[in-house]
Amino acid sequence: MSGLPFAFAYAPILLALLALPLIWLLLRVTPPKPKTESFPPTRLLLEISRKEEQPARTPWWLILLRCLMAAALIVALAGPVYKPATEQAPGSGPLLLVVDNGWASAPHWEATVETARRVIGLAEEDGRPMSLLATADGPGQELAPADAAETTRRLEALAPRPYAASYSDLVPTIDAAIRETPFGGLAWLSDGLGGDTNAAFGGYLAEWIDGPMVVYADSATETMALTPPIGGADALNVPVIRDDAGLPAAGFVRATDIKGRSIGDFPFDFPSGEASTEARIDLPVELRNDIARLDIVGAETAGAVQLLDERWRRRRVGLLSGAAADAAQPLLSPLYYIARAVQPFADVQEPRDANATVAVPELIEAGASVIVMADIGTLPADVETAVADWVAEGGTLVRFAGPHLSAATDSLIPARLRQGDRALGGSLTWQEEQPLASFSETSPFAGMTVPEDVLIKRQVLAEPDGDLTERTWAALDDGTPLVTAAQSGRGWLVLFHVTADTSWSNLPLSGAFVEMLRRVVAFSSAARTQTSADGQSAATIAPYRLLDGYGRFVPPGAEARPLPASATTIVPGPQHPPGLYGTEEGFRSLNLLDETATLARFDPASVPDATVQPYPSEAPTDLRPWLLAAALALFLLDALAVLWLNGMLNLRRRGPAVAAMLAIGFVVVAAASTVGPAVADEASDQFAIDAVSETRLAYVITGNGEIDAASEAGLSGLSRVLAERSALEPGSPVGVDPGRDELTFFPLLYWPIDPDSDLPTSATMARVDAYMRQGGTVLFDTRDQLERSSNLNTFSGTPAVERLRDMLANLDVPPLEPVPVDHVLTKAFYLLNDFPGRYSGGPLWVEAVEANQGRSDRPAQPGDGVSSILITGNDLAAAWAMNAAGDLLYATIPSDPLQREMAFRTGVNIVMYTLTGNYKADQVHVPALLERLGQ
């Protein structure tokens, strides 16, 4: 029996099946009820049957029917389950439930939560307390054993985090809990990723958990992620990694801009046995510079996202040299080494004229982000002023030393220099050639490996002062600066104290030279994000738009902290989630994975003596409803059989009674198929009567209780304002299901977009399309203005907007535009310039009037000049929402009574616009009205 796909919640009840033979015997010896006949005797003679008399015992088939009915009831009471889950709450005593809620858990989070619920239920049946540990929530979690209700509450509050679990940080928390309450079993719901820290954590649990352990790991799902892209001269190469190097796999990387608009999908292909590959983005430089986000299509995790900031933009670098040009010997030119070092990640521009008075303005006008001057000592006064202004506005000036600079210089240097230069390692010097010793931790060079083969044999020296150490980015072994830098306005002055050629050092021949220039160019753009409007360097960079565990943009939470502006290497975590930091004018991206990241699949051997099993792919099926329905059907058959045996089914004598009994039986057996439609039809009729009895506003029921309550309260508040301020007295708002309810009764349909709701079917959207063609107006509200850039003049990039785009994909939606200044909506009742709701700043989109002229093929033509579709993100319903007492339910953001009033005026104008059309745009009678006013 253990091999069958069945289980019973109360198996001992099945012992009642042993009583079935006794029931058979009792029913067999019990005769049926005697047949009653009416008097007089003559009538009795007419009813004498010529057939065999009724048996003295109950027929065998009726006994079998009743035994089957009893068996169905007994089995139903035993709680049968088809394909029961194999989970068990391991061990005895307090149970430790470990849930991986890092970014890799997002694809199978629902299965994780469902499995955790079943484990909690099994522990509850045994009366065991349990503790819940979320591995991505860090140390300090409460691990005191609690009951099932409290553990379930904590489980429901969990969500995938946009960073990885930090197993080593959890050890002190578990140690403290074990000292208080030893755990007698463990259930670990893994996210499927392994690695050294994962294996160490598994070994730790196996050592300290006093009882059996069960580990759930999803071995069927392959996890993919992106590491930082690598910019090349002709393409952007995006590394893609996976946790399984087995079978071949392929996919696409999608590139989008900061507004969420798709730039393109680029394929990648994993050969068999390879755990990494690349997607090549071959686009013109202008399009490449627009890329702000890279995603693996279909992989909804934070690890499958790479955000690009100014550091990944291919910048224009202007080169200017003070050395004499020698075309016959290009290797002697200092610009030769600089140009080849920056060409892989920047566009190099050399001026046509060697005259600095002409060349410098040419580079500035061409949009150079960085200007590199090799051995230029003194600039003309007007050129020096122009460069100083350019740096103050955010440019970066990089200078290399040389004979000219060591002889004389201007003010565009980060530190005062001594006259002349310092020679090292010659026959007339006392000192040896100096190697590099260190890079400053607050410089762009932080984290670089100090090259051992670079030797400096000549340099210019800086005058020592109290700030020299802070301005030193790289130093030699004797402590003298190799690279110094200082901020000037919003820009930077950077000085290499050696030449850009090989005459003073072999630095230009090393890979460190390329990396140092690459970081300086990247820093030149990122520095703008770290600089305030007054030109002062910002100490921190505030969170702007962060990622959740599914890789979606969300507003910063309470735990998020600003990034230190000077930090170059930050590990994402609870205080610094991956995302964008700064402002929309300039931001810095923090990504989950760096270029050294790899993915490893969970190794069952990492948890010794543990039982490893996959997440259940199919939920158990409760058979009790089916067995109870079968018992009811058998009961009805038994009743009909008894009626037949007692002559109650004689159609000639008892036709009406028999028909009534049959009708009752038919109704009971087929209640779901007959009563349902009748009730539905009655409800539909009442719905139509209520809708046409008075003008009502309608909203779409999304299934999200909070959103639907806000919609109902919002339209109720707007209806109250309409009754107070206009001649319209609307009734109570109506919630509708566009796939079932008739929409033509309503002039305006408010549709809040819930990104987590199911996508409407094509049949539903066809009904909406017909409603729009017949003159109805749908107001879509994505309610996501806070998640979007304040000056964003398009609808894209947020989950709600993407869901709306998917909904409208099969409709021939006309071109849209923000409400023009002369549109009827700006003067339908009030004179309005913008259309705020709970949020402000987002435009209200309507059909472009010019696009409708001369078109007859579009399914949703505007009736009487009324746009069939309106779109906003300002959350209008929340701004209108009132309770029965007239109290406002939601605060506007920012809290401004004027914004609330303008939101109500927006609602009044929209309703008047949908009811009256374009009468306010009629200018025919304006002269006559003006003439009458003049009289």
Structure explained in plain terms:
It is a single chain. With 935 residues, this protein is of the alpha/beta class. It has five domains: 6-82 and 634-659, no CATH class; 95-220 and 603-619, von Willebrand factor, type A domain (Rossmann fold, 3-Layer(aba) Sandwich); 224-308 and 547-598, no CATH class; 313-529, Class I glutamine amidotransferase (GATase) domain (Rossmann fold, 3-Layer(aba) Sandwich), CATH 3.40.50; 696-921, Rossmann fold (3-Layer(aba) Sandwich). The protein contains 24 helices and 40 strands. The protein has a nine-stranded mixed sheet, sandwiched between helices. It has a five-stranded parallel sheet with strand order 4-3-5-6-32, with helices on one face. Strand 30 and strand 31 form a beta hairpin. It starts with 5 loop residues before the first strand and ends with a helix. 38% of the residues are buried.
Compact summary:
It is built from 24 helices and 40 strands.
Could you list some keywords that capture this structure?
alpha/beta, Rossmann fold, 5 domains, transmembrane helix
Map the helices and strands.
Blueprint (H helix, E strand, L loop, with lengths): L5 E3 L11 H10 L11 H6 L13 H18 L2 E3 L12 E5 L9 H17 L4 E5 L13 H9 L10 H14 L4 E5 L6 H13 L4 E4 L7 E3 L3 E2 L4 E7 L6 E8 L5 E9 L5 E6 L3 H4 L4 E4 L8 E3 L7 E7 L12 H9 L3 E4 L6 H10 L4 E5 L6 H12 L3 E5 L2 H5 L14 E2 L10 E6 L15 E2 L1 E2 L8 H4 E5 L4 E8 L2 E6 L14 H19 L10 E2 L1 E5 L5 E2 L8 E2 L14 E4 L4 E4 L20 E3 L7 E2 L1 H22 L5 H19 L1 H23 L4 E3 L4 H21 L8 E3 L11 E5 L9 H12 L3 E5 L17 H9 L8 E3 L26 E3 L1 H4 L16 E4 L3 H5 L16 H20 L9 H9 L1
Parallel strand pairs: 3-4, 3-5, 5-6, 6-32, 15-16, 15-17, 17-18, 18-25, 34-35, 34-36, 36-37, 37-40
Antiparallel strand pairs: 1-2, 2-33, 7-9, 8-9, 9-12, 10-11, 10-13, 13-14, 19-22, 20-21, 20-23, 23-24, 24-25, 26-29, 27-28, 27-30, 30-31, 38-39
Helix pairs in contact: 1-3, 3-15, 4-5, 6-7, 9-14, 10-11, 15-16, 16-17
Pfam families: BatA, DUF4159
Protein name: N-terminal double-transmembrane domain-containing protein
InterPro entries: Aerotolerance_reg_N (IPR024163), Class_I_gatase-like (IPR029062), Double_TM_dom (IPR011933), DUF4159 (IPR025297)
